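Regression test case RT-17, inverse folding.

Input:
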């Protein structure tokens, strides 16, 4: 149904996003801090895939540190008080985390594919030095993809009042940003997604065909594939689809063409923004399968926590903490 004016509930994001950001900030810092600490403790025994996991954690922490400013922004009724430059930096960090995470998840997938499907061909070629070089290339490529976003208008001020800090840009440049967003979605999301699905699809086929394949390895690969499917299905796919739909609705509304579904798309897009930031809290799940020592550490910590809880509630002075086990090679 065509309308001449668009009735959109803009206050929804101020109610929905702050609680999500608070939860992600707390859980994400704890999870990524624990994962980063575990990595640094094993630095001398750093393996190739752990380099990508380390960069994944750094990308998450970089974004999480910007969330307090966004909490203030939405708690004050979408009034940005930190200036135009910092608004652009905040949005840049979000995009750097989003596409950096996708990039490093792709690297982890390609590494596992090569190590499992072509172990002899890549023997001696997958080194820590090369993985560091690849990580630097990922950061550079993602930065180049995100850089044009910095040149779009990000803030809007009415008189002396604090203004907006746009996730994309204002309505005036909505058409240009939609074209940029579509290209960005193709290169930064669709192509990596196809690479990841292709790698793990082939890995699963190979593992299922070989009866002598280690069952533990097969289970770990299947679990990691499920985690990646979860990440993309919950965090990445809805966000990219709805971001472009929302931009398209803005282009149409600029032309005074409105439909009833505009409000639903806007609300769904705000929900997808909350979901996509969950990647910073869910990415540590990769640590459980990307780093061999961490599952044992987690089990040990949980066992110690259970014993301490039992000691507390039973007030048993004879309780003795479980001794730490030696690190495995």
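Golden output:
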């Amino acid at each position: 149904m065509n309308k001449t004016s668009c009735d959109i509930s803009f206050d929804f994001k101020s109610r929905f996003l702050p609680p999500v950001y608070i939860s992600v900030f707390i859980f994400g810092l704890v999870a990524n801090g624990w994962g980063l600490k575990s990595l640094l403790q094993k630095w001398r025994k750093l393996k190739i895939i752990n380099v990508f996991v380390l960069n994944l954690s750094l990308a998450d922490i970089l974004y999480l540190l910007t969330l307090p400013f966004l909490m203030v922004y939405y708690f004050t009724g979408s009034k940005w008080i930190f200036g135009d430059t910092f608004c652009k930096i905040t949005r840049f960090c979000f995009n750097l985390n989003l596409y950096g995470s996708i990039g490093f998840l792709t690297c982890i997938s390609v590494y596992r594919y090569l190590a499992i499907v072509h172990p002899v061909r890549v023997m001696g070629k997958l080194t820590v030095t090369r993985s560091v070089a690849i990580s630097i290339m990922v950061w550079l490529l993602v930065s180049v993809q995100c850089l044009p976003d910095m040149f779009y208008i990000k803030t809007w001020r009415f008189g002396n009042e604090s203004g907006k800090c746009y996730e994309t840009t204002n309505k005036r440049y909505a058409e240009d940003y939609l074209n940029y967003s579509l290209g960005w979605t193709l290169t930064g999301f669709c192509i990596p997604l196809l690479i990841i699905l292709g790698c793990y699809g082939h890995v699963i086929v190979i593992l299922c065909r070989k009866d002598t394949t280690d069952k533990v390895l097969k289970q770990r690969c299947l679990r990691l594939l499920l985690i990646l499917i979860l990440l993309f299905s919950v965090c990445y796919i809805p966000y990219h689809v709805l971001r472009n739909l929302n931009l398209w609705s803005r282009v149409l509304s600029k032309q005074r063409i409105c439909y009833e579904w505009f409000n639903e798309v806007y609300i769904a897009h705000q929900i997808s923004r909350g979901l996509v930031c969950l990647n910073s809290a869910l990415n540590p799940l990769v640590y459980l399968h990307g780093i061999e020592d961490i599952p044992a550490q987690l089990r040990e910590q949980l066992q110690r926590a259970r014993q301490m809880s039992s000691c507390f509630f039973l007030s048993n002075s004879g309780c003795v903490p479980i001794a730490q086990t030696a690190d495995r090679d």
